[in-house]
Amino acid sequence: MPRNLSPRKKYFVPSFKQLTKILSKVLPDIPRLDSRGNRPLKMTFEDQLNALIFFHLEEHTSARHLIQTLQQDDFARNNIAPEGGIGKSSFSEAINGRGLEQFLFVFQELQKQACFLLPKKYSRLGELVSIDGSLTDSVLSMAWADYREGSKKAKLHLGFNVNQGIPQKLFLTDGKTGERPFVHQILEPRQTGILDRGYQDHQNFDRLQEEQKHFVCRVKGNTHKTCLEKYDVDSDGMIFYDAKVLLGQNGPGQTRKPL
């Protein structure tokens, strides 16, 4: 049922059954989640997914709050909690061992469905993909999320489909991993990446052009530009400089292909 989440604006919030119905076509093909030890899983991946959907729909404030509801609420106990119920320690163990591979598979399949349904904006500008990386705190037991001593952070590398307003591709790495190489994995030929100045890399600019991938990138103010051809601009327009240039000082750091 619709719920009023703001005194100023009403948003439609889908029900639990509506959301899980969308997932029904995806679930049979999800890679199997196996136990990492000798004990069988207390929660299947579908159980985990249902619990997390319910957690966000009901706006629970903690895992303890969710577990209490799974034990006491008739709907949650019969439709969301695994058979036989779930305790705090078993729930924590299951969530700590949740399947990243399985969640990425669900994301990719739902993203494909959304692309067929959502209208596209700015079509005259082609396919626009905003790209950025973001750090997120991780618990110390996540040994792979290397960042620095005493601190674990994971890094999300995200391509956001501007035309349809949804994420397009994502990659999760440890916090130390560089962001620039993921531009090539996120962008498809003839798409246009929108990048901040942290992605300025002249060799990558050449490679992107070789791959027939377009990009708009902010560059540092002190970047040396060798002008090859300058074009007129409207003095009252938004564009104040239009030219074909090579970026960087003459040498290995200079772009081979003009921009």
How is the secondary structure organized here?
Layout: H1 16-23, H2 45-57, H3 63-72, H4 74-79, H5 88-96, H6 100-117, E1 128-138, E2 146-148, E3 151-161, E4 166-174, H7 182-186, E5 192-195, H8 202-210, E6 214-217, E7 225-230, E8 243-247
Can you describe what's shown?
The protein is of the alpha/beta class. It folds into 2 domains: 16-101; 118-223, Nucleotidyltransferase, domain 5. Helices cover 30% and strands 20% of the residues. Strands 1, 2, 3, 4, 5 and 6 form a 6-stranded mixed sheet that branches. A two-stranded antiparallel sheet has the order 7-8. The longest helix is centred in the middle third of the chain and has 18 residues, at 100-117. The radius of gyration is 24 Å and the shape is elongated. Residues 1-6 have low confidence and may be disordered.
Which features does this protein show?
259 residues; alpha/beta; Nucleotidyltransferase, domain 5; 2 domains; 6-stranded mixed β-sheet; two-stranded antiparallel sheet; 8 strands; elongated; disordered N terminus
Give the structure's gist in a few sentences:
This protein has 259 residues and is of the alpha/beta class. It has 2 domains: 16-101; 118-223, Nucleotidyltransferase, domain 5. It contains 8 helices and 8 strands, in the order H-H-H-H-H-H-E-E-E-E-H-E-H-E-E-E.
